[in-house]
Amino acid sequence: MYQAATVQQKIKEQQTQIKVVERQQQIEIQEQEIMRKEKELDSKIKKPAEAEKYRLEKIAEANRLRLVLEAEAEAEALTLKGEAEAYAIEAKAKAEAEQMAKKADAWNEYGKAAIVDMMLQVLPKVAAEVAAPLTRVNKITMVADSNGEIGAARMTDEVLSIMTKVPEVINTMTNVDIKSIMNGS
After folding, report:
1. For 98-163, what is the HEC assignment?
2. Residue 61 reports pLDDT greater than 90
């Protein structure tokens, strides 16, 4: 019996050993299954997520770079536009100054005779403009005291009085003394 008990004992030990080996194999299988699932997770979720993250980062970087370049281009365009406008203003001012200088030179070259000639051409036009309202008048009533003239003579005196003030107005506006030029002084 002793031998049967020993054999029984050995059988039980081997069965226990078999269960331990089976259990270790199950653990190894589970660990391999865990590793397989981790690899599957890595390949199906982590890698695509990392790829998507990388793609989005590159898109964001490209957009940022595009915005920076657009802002720089816009700033450069505004600078160029400002410089062009400044150049145009400067050129226009130079041209106007040159034109004024040429006019001044021309006036200096004209001399007194030309100025008198121009004034003699312009004065009749001024007189016509001063007298023009009178051509549209139907009736004039003139009031004068007993010492003054009345009638058409009074009207002519008024027009001539206005005309004698024209040289003073020209002197005030242009600083050119027509009376002294016409007198030859």
Report:
1. HHHHHHHHHHHHHHHHHHHHHHHHHHHHHHHHHHHHHHCCCCCCCCCCCCCCCCHHHHHHHHHHHH
2. yes
Can you tell me the distance from the alpha carbon of 64 to that of 104, in angstroms, rounded to the nearest whole number? 59
Domain count, the chain: 1
Domain for residue 156, yes or no?
A: no
pTM over the 0.70 mark: no
- In this structure, what are the phi and psi dihedrals at residue 137, rounded to the nearest 5 degrees? -85, 135
Where is 1: in which H helix or E strand?
Answer: none
| C-beta separation of 166 from 123 below 8 A | yes
Position 120 pLDDT exceeds 60: yes
Do residues 158 and 140 touch, judged by C-beta distance below 8 A?
no
Closest to 158 in 3D by CA, of 176, 140, 175: 140
Whole-number pLDDT of residue 6: 84
pLDDT of residue 25: 92
Residue type, 39: K
Is residue 151 a part of any domain in this protein? no
Q: What is the pLDDT of residue 26?
A: 92
Distance CA 136, CA 1 (A): 163
Residue 15 lies in a domain: yes
